[in-house]
Design goal:
The structure holds two protein chains of two kinds. Chain A has two domains: about 65-185, no CATH class; about 195-420, MetI-like fold, CATH 1.10.3720.10. Chain A has 20 helices and two strands. Chain A has helices at about 1-10, 15-55, 65, 70-75, 85-100, 105-115, 120-130, 140-145, 155-160, 170-175, 195-225, 230-240, 245-260, 265-270, 285-310, 310-320, 325-355, 355-360, 370-380, 385-410, and strands at about 175-180, 185. Chain A has a two-stranded antiparallel ribbon with strand order 1-2. In chain A, β1 (about 175-180) and β2 form a beta hairpin. In chain A, α6 (about 105-115) packs antiparallel against α7, α15 crosses α17 and α16 (about 310-320) packs antiparallel against α17 (about 325-355). The two termini of chain A are about 35 Å apart. In chain B, the strands form four sheets. Chain B has a six-stranded mixed sheet with strand order 6-7-8-3-9-10, sandwiched between helices. Chain B has a five-stranded mixed beta barrel with strand order 11-12-13-20-14. A five-stranded antiparallel sheet of chain B has the order 15-19-16-17-18, with no helix packed on it. By secondary structure, chain B is of the alpha+beta class. In chain B, β7 (about 165-170), α5 and β8 form a beta-alpha-beta unit. The two termini of chain B are about 20 Å apart. The radius of gyration of chain B is 24 Å and the shape is elongated. Chain B contains eight helices and 20 strands. The chains are: A mainly alpha, B alpha+beta. The interface of A and B includes residues 324, 332, 419 and 420 of A.
């Protein structure tokens, strides 16, 4: 038998071992690929595609280019130091007339108005009052007469900046930055600089909610992991119960509970603890309470799974080695739950960053998070560029956080000695 | 019961009237009285569910006795939390802290005792040398083999010089060869360090190899506490006789009792003389116990005087290497085993009628099974 298998091996030895291994693995790989293919396609069309589209929209800038093609072409050679020459005025006049004929002036006006407040008026009044193509050589005079703004350098640099096809304008705006008339990046004017504080607010609310979830969820997860299975299953149902009702219903329930003559205020008043109703909703407090409630399961479940993997023998071993309960908890138990704490916190924090409905319903004007503004620009003002830029910044920050978390978890390689 | 072969040392641990129940209905430990002497290696041996691990857990402080008191160095410890007991423990699955390195694991009991860094380091180094793992100090437990993890768990339980070391089936997860090697290493450590060890196992050969004394548990009761040889040669009842070593059983009824010996009529026919160890008197049913290595097979019916002689039929022979076994049918017991020289099994044929002989003092009349 030994001899037979030896000759068998000799015959196969002509094909290198690596190739044979590859061949043997290939079928398995194809099968695996076929299994993930439907999801891969689904994600490609519903997730990767839209995200790429959003990122593209945050730098896409072709409206002005399409409406004012001749002007953009002439301005390409303009150094931006003085007013452009007659050729540019003539090109603009011809573009405006063509735009008026096709009804596209408003598109360019809207885009240019983002960059320079009042540009809409400049362009529409010019389009309305420009009767015909000015005589050669008189374009500058004609346009300046219709609207003196055409004698300002800023008006022209705004067109040049918006001539595309790509721009950093929206991304800069999302960070409260803008370009001045000389093209240098400067802080935006105070009345437009709101996004940094909105981002800061978003992070502060998300961090508070994450901290609250951790403080409230840790003991519950510990209880879940240590109770006998029967009772822990019952408790788990209570933890998962919020998942079975819609987010909207849960948030509205908080309105019922927290409003001025809601359940909480009425009870406190009845107990004589307060005379005036407390302001519990339409402020930061209400937002944090409602979001913590909604996100708590996302903290408890990863914590529970990391705690479930910790054998009770570790705590016993620590006690037998002389560690009092608190020391044993801090030095043996807590470090082993760190992956769970990290996963839960990251999950809650990232979910909280994108929260929209809850702050919109139970928050005040000063509690609206970044998603509110993204929604505002997409649905109300149709400023897709800025909405996309805000989304892109949020995405970048979230990715960075996920990366940091990945590094932390990877550095803390925990392999259970109990599993061997 | 006490064999007195070990010079009695002062008792370090005393269980006094200990009872334990988990559900309030069944006693897992029924009225345990046991003394553990300073410096001895005592094994709690028994099948699973016999109460041996519960006893160990009560001593470690992880379970509280329902009734009775445990004394450690003459101090009652029933209500003392485990971390104050100064008892080292080695767990069945080692319980090495997975997020700490080997050195940090061994240093843990020293650092919770706030021993200064320099001394702690020296003691950890000495402990690592003792288990011959100096080079692996900075590995994590997950990177070690089972045997290595076991050594680290040992070092960790010994490094703070506890007055008592408990081991809960520490070798259960290892393969046979490694287990035997570790048995010798633990025994060696016990000898050189002079520590008191309470060892729990369900493996009787492990218990026989390692222990100074063995407490045999069954059904929540200590059946017998004795040295390994005394347990093997002089079991007090059928359970101990069965649990320790190989054993042949023949059922019968006591006919007469004369001093230490009795005459027993076998249920399957024939009669033998046996040592009356645990029989109430004439007429009582009994269970005879004969070790396989104390039996000879002869082909003719003649035998020297005083030996018990019974007819048998060969069922099978098994070659084991260093010895051979003959499976016989004796007085209705079809699994009667006789230990033979390795070359002797060739001469026996299946179905052959033979006779077995054994001395009356090697045949124990015990309580009926």
């Amino acid at each position: 038998m030994t001899a037979a298998s030896l000759t068998g091996a000799d015959a196969q030895a002509e094909v290198p071992l690596k190739r044979r291994l590859k061949r043997a693995e290939r079928a398995r790989q194809i099968k695996a690929l076929a299994l993930v293919l439907p999801l891969l396609l689904f994600l490609l069309f519903t997730f990767a595609g839209p995200i790429a589209g959003m990122l593209w929209r945050s730098v896409d800038d072709r409206e002005v280019r399409q409406v004012l093609p001749q002007t953009v072409a002439v301005l390409a050679n303009w150094d931006g130091k003085d007013l452009p020459d007659e050729k540019a005025y003539a090109a603009l006049a011809s573009d405006i007339l063509a735009g008026r004929a096709s009804g596209t002036v408003a598109i360019a006006a809207k885009r240019l108005n983002y960059a320079l407040n009042g540009f809409r008026t400049i362009l529409t009044s010019t389009a309305r009052n420009l009767k015909a193509v000015p005589e050669p050589g008189t374009a500058k005079e004609t346009l300046s007469k219709i609207n003196p703004a055409w004698r300002e350098r800023t008006t022209w640099t705004t067109i040049k900046d918006a001539s595309g096809p790509m721009t950093g304008f929206y991304l800069l705006a999302a960070l409260d930055l803008t370009r001045n008339v000389d093209g240098a990046i400067v802080a935006a004017s105070p009345d437009q600089a709101i996004y940094r504080s909105v981002f800061a607010r978003t992070f502060i609310i998300s961090l508070s909610v994450t901290a609250l979830c951790l403080i409230l969820g840790f003991p519950v997860a510990y209880l879940l992991a240590t109770l006998p299975p029967g009772r822990s299953n019952l408790l788990m149902i209570f933890v998962l119960l919020p998942f079975w009702t819609s987010l909207l219903v849960r948030t509205c329930a908080w309105i019922v509970l927290l409003q001025s003559n809601g359940v909480v205020n009425d009870s406190l008043h009845w107990l004589g603890i307060i005379d005036e109703p407390l302001r519990l909703i339409y402020n930061r407090f209400g937002v944090c309470v409602a979001m913590t409630h909604v996100l708590l399961p996302f903290m408890i479940l990863p914590l529970y799974s990391s705690m479930k993997a910790i054998s009770p023998a570790y705590m016993r071993a620590a006690a037998s080695l002389g560690a009092p309960p608190v020391t044993a908890f801090l030095r043996i138990y807590l470090p082993q739950t760190l992956p769970g704490i990290g996963a839960g916190s990251l999950l809650v924090f990232i979910l909280a960053l994108g929260y929209y409905i809850t702050p919109a319903l139970v928050g005040g004007a000063a509690d609206q998070m970044i998603s509110y503004f993204i929604a505002l620009y997409t649905t109300e003002t149709a400023n897709w560029g800025l909405a996309s830029a805000l989304g892109a910044v949020l995405l970048l920050v979230t990715l960075l956080l996920a990366l940091v978390y990945g590094k932390l978890v990877h550095g803390q390689q925990v392999t259970g000695g109990m599993k061997n | 019961m006490e064999a007195g072969m070990v010079t009695p040392a002062p008792a370090l641990v005393r269980f006094s009237g200990i009872q334990k129940t988990y559900d309030g209905e069944h006693l897992v430990v029924k009225n345990l009285d046991l003394e553990i002497r300073k410096g001895e290696f005592i094994t709690l041996l028994g099948p699973s569910g016999s109460g041996k691990t519960t006893t160990l857990m009560m001593l470690a402080g992880f379970e509280v006795p329902t009734h009775g008191e445990i004394y450690l160095a003459d101090r009652p410890i029933k209500n003392m939390p485990p971390h104050k007991r100064d008892i080292g423990m080695v767990f069945q699955n080692y319980a090495l802290f997975p997020h700490l390195t080997i050195a940090e694991n061994i240093a843990f009991p020293l650092s919770v005792r706030k021993i200064n860094k320099a001394e702690a380091q020296e003691r950890v180094r000495a402990a690592l040398r003792m288990i011959k793992m100096d080079t692996l100090a900075h590995r994590r437990p997950g990177q070690l083999s089972g045997g290595q993890q076991q050594r680290v768990a040992l070092a960790r339980a010994l490094v703070f010089n506890p007055q008592l070391v408990l081991m809960d089936e520490p070798l259960g997860a290892l393969d046979k060869r490694l287990r035997e090697q570790m048995q010798l290493e633990i025994k060696q450590l016990h000898k050189t360090m002079g520590i008191t060890v309470v060892y729990v196992t369900h493996d009787q050969s492990e218990a026989l190899t390692m222990s100074d004394r063995i407490a045999v548990f069954n059904d929540g009761i200590v059946q017998q506490v004795d040295t390994p040889d005394a347990l093997y040669e002089h079991p007090v009842n059928s359970f101990v006789a069965h649990f320790i070593g190989e054993n042949n059983v023949l059922a019968g009824t006591v006919e007469t009792v004369e001093k230490e010996y009795c005459r027993v009529a076998l249920a399957g026919g024939g009669a033998v003389t046996a040592r009356a160890v645990n029989v109430s008197g004439a007429g009582a049913s009994t269970s005879l116990s004969v070790r396989p290595e104390r039996i000879s097979i002869i082909l003719d019916g003649t035998s020297s005087d005083g030996l018990n002689r019974l007819p048998a039929k060969v069922q099978n022979t098994i070659y084991v290497g260093d010895h051979a076994l003959a499976v016989l049918d004796v007085a209705g017991n079809g699994e009667f085993i006789v230990k033979l020289q390795p070359d002797a099994h060739d001469s026996l044929r299946h179905g052959e009628s033979v006779f077995i002989t054994f001395r009356p003092e090697d045949c124990l009349a015990l309580d009926p099974v």
